[in-house]
Amino acid sequence: MTNKLNKLLGNRIQYLRKTRGFSQEKFAEAINIATTSLSYIETGRGFMTLATLEKMIEVLKVEPYEIFQFSQSKTQEEMYDFLNEKVESIKNDNEKLKKAYTVIKNLL
Known about the structure:
This protein is mainly α. The chain has helices at residues 2-19, 24-30, 35-42, 50-60, 64-67, 76-90, 94-107.
């Protein structure tokens, strides 16, 4: 559970950082941590102190609850894996496969 939360929180911080135009280096500098530490946080391999979290909230100009809104925090790999899993689950259901094919075909 902790690893999943670290990854979700890291993805969310990375998303917010990028949407606000910060490079990893500039953001790390603004919150007074090493770029490698930020990288560990954003990839879910590390966690930050409460003081660092508070500084992130301040620099990103977000409300504290916004840091924990994970619904938009899916990585490209997570979305791809999800879609592959769903396609695999319907591969023998001709009707569902046709519907999925039609939706995807119309998106492209």
